[in-house]
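Margin note from the TA: students keep mixing up input and output lines. Inputs are the sequences; the output is the structure of the whole complex. Example:
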Amino acid sequence: MPAALQFSSVSKRYDSGYEAIERISFTVAARRFVSIVGPSGCGKSTVLNLAAGLLSASAGEVESFGEPLAGLNRRAAYLFQQDALLPWKSVLENAQLGLELRGMAHDAAHDWLRRVGLQAFATRYPHELSGGMRKRVALAQCLAVQPDLLLMDEPFSALDIHTRLRMEQELLDWVGAAGTTVLFITHDLEEAIALSDEVLVLSAGPRSHLVGRYEIDLPRPRPLLDLKTEPRFAEIYKSIWHDLRGEVVKALGGDHQGGPAHG
Amino acid sequence: MARSLNPRVLAGRIAVASVFLGGWEAGARFGWLDPFFFSRPSAVVARVWLQLSQGTVWPHLGVTVVEAALSFLLGSVAGIAAGFVLGRSRLLGDIFGPYIQIANSLPRVVLAPIFLLWFGLGIWSKVALGVTVVFFIVFFNTLKGVREVNPVLLDNARMLGASERQLVRHVLLPSALAWIFSSLEISVGMSIIAAVVGEYLGSTQGIGYLIAQAEGVFDTTGVFAGMVFLAAFVLIVAAAVGRVERRLLHWRPRPAEASNV
Ligand SMILES: Nc1ncnc2c1ncn2[C@@H]1O[C@H](COP(=O)(O)OP(=O)(O)OP(=O)(O)O)[C@@H](O)[C@H]1O
Ligand SMILES: [Mg+2]
């Protein structure tokens, strides 16, 4: 089975001249859960946009399920970092949007709203919801189309710790059952370790590159509630944090490469 | 969702009208204002009533309404369509942009005689004039609305599988609707003004024609009566547009304290 995603020496230089990422290579095998962590502004969303086909690489190649990406990645669903619900559609209409656009039956959307705990808000409009509730609607919208590849950009950072834990657990259960491949972005290393099979660490920008790749060998299924107190979890955390820490220090201004390089 | 009017606002409005009309009436009666030039509110009301009861005004009002409605419809449909096409295509926008600016800078009043030559004294010369006014108002607003759509909403819909047509229907049109509606409200008034100006400059029917006739014989009361009909007409149509707008934009958060000006 071909990899769900394959980045081969991918670089991205924005029109402004800013070189966000440089020569990044990694593989996300089908049915795997891979997370990317890195300091703010290092290029995590850039990588995700490349995987979605919303951006095209300046150099290198992005393949998805064995085919080079040209245009949008049709097998992927994308949970954006920013608010992406349509303000003029109700919660239910938003959850159904993907199904409606693809001419599929709408019934599944109800089910997904229930699973994210928002069936009571089906007729409300996005401006009547909290930020975390909107994120959950967006999650239902993505999952309703049953994608092969799920791209998630900091989906849970707006949630309180209880809702967050519940959503994380549900996400693991859903993607495990459906066999969905996930590329997950977070700035929370604990979350990355708890959810993933593999964690990729990006360096601080500009010209961000991969500084580490860590196989997470915690057994599945994972009961998240108690996971973080396990000794193996702490071990993994320590080894990754050692590398990440260096990048965070750089991003905070440890050197002067942090500014945009216009040219 | 009827908006109840604040009683203080209502009282204030009535006070303003009373002072204005009362002052005007008193001024005319006590000789501060020459009734020949200024007429009087009571005479205007009497004339309005006379024209209504005799039915002489209806055919003229009908003609003006048809002209305004046609120019409003044609102008706004064309303006919305052009706004979408040029808003979505950088290339077409760049090609046609300067020409549209040039066309928009022409003063409409100088076009009126040309349209009279081209389309004759009937309604079509007035419709043409109205379309040139309405089109640009709606076009520029639609263009702005389409170009200011949140790109994340577009990306999200495209990732979910939207075709260009579905993007227009689900994202671009609703997003631009607030802009389009604010232009439609202005366009209603402008289409009526254009119809009346067109009639005033050359026609055989319509409110503008009535006003021109009254002016020709220095019948100020008749001129004011014509204006009353126009004002009533504009208020009714604007209220209707406002209703449609509130229906279509019901998803928007209610503004904290909507001013009605
Ligand atoms: N359209 C663009 N044009 C120019 N530069 C951009 C553009 N988009 C992003 N960048 C720059 O690229 C770098 C990476 O941005 P990106 O959004 O990928 O960061 P990120 O890792 O997702 O950050 P965060 O964790 O804060 O979301 C940033 O320095 C940003 O300023
Ligand atoms: Mg980001």
